[in-house]
Specification:
By secondary structure, the protein is mostly helical.
């Protein structure tokens, strides 16, 4: 509801965000796959940790920034970890 009524996103962007949120909620973690700029194999953001409504979002954003600092920045304007 937030991404459709408050902070409106395009349909494609909303699908991308929800796909990543689903991975985080299931504890799959997410990685930046890009042939040109992607993260090294086996580098995932918080794989094995389920993210939910009570998770510390600011802490997750800090961890995401550390991943980018170590493995390479998200060339998708932050859409992977910062949306």
């Amino acid at each position: 509801e937030y991404v459709t009524e408050v902070d409106t996103l395009s349909d494609q962007n909303r699908r991308n965000v929800l796909r990543q949120v689903t991975k985080l909620a299931m504890g799959e973690g997410i990685r930046y796959d890009s042939k040109a700029y992607g993260w090294p194999e086996d580098c995932y953001f918080i794989k094995g940790t389920k993210v939910g409504p009570t998770s510390d979002i600011l802490k997750l954003m800090e961890l995401g920034q550390k991943c980018e600092d170590e493995w390479g920045r998200d060339h998708g304007n932050g859409s992977l970890l910062r949306h």
